[in-house]
Write a structure and sequence with these properties.
412 residues; Phosphorylase Kinase, domain 1; Transferase(Phosphotransferase), domain 1; three-stranded antiparallel sheet; 12 strands; 40% helix
Length: 412
Amino acid sequence: MLLASSPECFSCFRSIRENIFFIPKSPNFNSLNRIRKTRLCKATLITNSDCFQVGRLVGSYGFMNITSYSAFPTSGDLEQLRVQDVGEGSVKIKLYEGRVSQGPLRGTPVIFKVYPGKRAGGAEADMMAANELNSHSLLQSSSRGINKHLVILVGGFETKTGEQWLAFRDDGKYSAADYAKFASEKVSKDRALGEVSSWNRFEQEQAIKRRRYFIVKLLQGAMRGLACMHDNDRLHQSLGPSSVVLNTISEREARYLVPRLRDLAFSVDIRYSEIEKDPGSLSDSDGLWRRASAAGAVTLMEKRAFGIADDIYEAGLLFAYLAFVPFCEAGAMDSLSLQRLLENTFKLDLEATREYCLADDRLVNAVEFLDLGNGAGWELLEAMLNPDFRKRPIAEAVLNHRFLAGDGEVVL
């Protein structure tokens, strides 16, 4: 689920990945009994459309479609990322406000994520909806309980035209991308005011500390959600700024911030029994396992480890995005430019990246953020983006790293 701050917002779910889709057992909410028993929804999920009331349209978004692909992360292939063909995907998703109108959850606000029917979106739309349904079903049925850093699926239904409506509890109307945009616009505004805004140096320093603390809290929540998914044998596979929903973007309210992961349409099951199966040419996991083989992962254990490390790499790109964009003027840095800088220009050499950024006045605050704790931020970023998947930390290790551990001591 992605709440767009503008009517049209396109999210790169695959972050330089090929766009292959999961084959569902059944995407029809009126036929949930045909979905595999291991992925059955809890009985508490609402599947009757009469139990919902639909409100206004709040946005829409689509997907980037990667039509060429080169294996990653061997050093010789990094340069090839520049020549990949990126186009707009065929699936367009709409978002509506709403609420539960009947039953024990009556009055609960929800956000509807609407996948188009086959006529408008093709088979891919149904496949994505089914995979998202199955993923949330598994995670919400976990014996460990529901994790507060994952969005909650309340229910869903299928319309007569074939649209798949997924209803998620409305726990926030912003994303990490919205926050970064808000923060960068504030940087631009402050710099435009010049000396007028710099009369109170103490307040400026406090504002920077609040921003750093907010970002650390955001990253902690995102990584806790990812750790929960991995503990339950699921990969996210589309982690990015638009995939993290926030209940606030006010840096003064950081202590109340609860980040939640969403957008599980590309999630992959990494139970050994599933990895063993032939995924088929349309499976979302097919591309993942081909990349795993290219990276030298042969056994089931190695392939599983590659999948987890692949999520960590995407989390590393999210970390880099949040370390730079909120500290820069609007338009000075974006996710794709930053990724190209890291992967193409500096071949994941973080020391060289730091020297380059330090020479750019627009990026100094971001460098200082990562420099905290004697370079703890660069240290963590380098580990998460390590070209060798075997050397990347697991999500729990990321959370225990000195840059994120302890509720932001390194930052404050």
